[in-house]
Amino acid sequence: MWTLGQSEQLKRILYLAHGGSRGGGQTQLLYLIENLDRQSYELLVICPRDGQFVTAVVRSGVEVFVCPLHAWRKFPAALARYSDAKRLLRYASDREVSIIHCSDLWLSGYMRWLCTRLKVPSVLHVRTPLCTRDVQKHCCDKADAVIAISSRVKRNLIDGGVRKEKIVQIDDGVDVQLFLPNTNGHVLAQDYPDSEDFRIGIVGRVCEAKRQLDFLKAAKAVIESIDKKISFFIIGHYKSNKYYHRLRKFIKSQALEGSVFFIGERQDMPEVLASLDVLVSLSGGSVMFEAMSCGTPVISAAFTRRQDSVHVQDGRTGLLVSSGRTSDIAAAIRNLVESENLRKMIGREAREWTVHNLSHLKMTRQTERVYQSL
Asked: If you classify domain 187-357 with CATH, what class do you get?
């Protein structure tokens, strides 16, 4: 908990974060919070929503201010943004914040407003590809430093007018000592005894952006074209919304009820990912790196081009499918289902690559260097 009069040599970092459930971006921020040098940095977090992320931050010994915030740009909610911003200003001013690090693009308006008044530098973390319009809409060029999680995001920022010298590429990381190859049985086999011996999964909250419907279409094509019995797992938060009902309707119409399992959010993701034979990702994300660390082969489809994919290297550390066509995704799945040797080789190479290139500790040290440069 923060107290006044602490050592003046500490840099006080204020994070603006989404809060709520613990998704990929929140997990990356937690890695940073948990592993920064506390001899050099004092950490504070502001979230507009309570939830799993806030609980995890508090458990790490960091103060959190849960403060509901109106959308910065959305009318008419934006009319109330200044009263929200003034509350944040009082909080940050009382704690003599040194740097504001915005981990959620939609909170970047609050970051700019606070930094202008406090006269402190800003760091904007961009965790998703952006079109030029979005780069300009969110005024990414106004940040003092911009962290891009991939070469593709970095290129998007440059195309949108952000100066190269402001941008630092820092790839997401993974705790390679937590996400380990499976050596202690299969949790999915234990929890879902009716599932088949070959398990393919997709991870992420159930929504159109995560493309679970395309996953199901590929699943249907694979089932129709191969003798091997396979179970497909949809892993992530779901609620009774239109998209969820659309998925259920598709499953029923295609007679997939016995082959598809909705298993919701899990608190044992290292064990779950290690229990999969294949992970399919249709929207990118650090979950691919987590699966790779577990030695689980990854198919990344419909999200990036081969020349942009540094870590999922086609035929070596995973399979990369540039298109989003059902037939192409299904062909990649069949390729792994039918070749145990290919699965083992990719799993082994993926684990080795992750250990050497994607450690969450490496990501933390790189971020510290950004802070030191401001």
From this structure: alpha beta
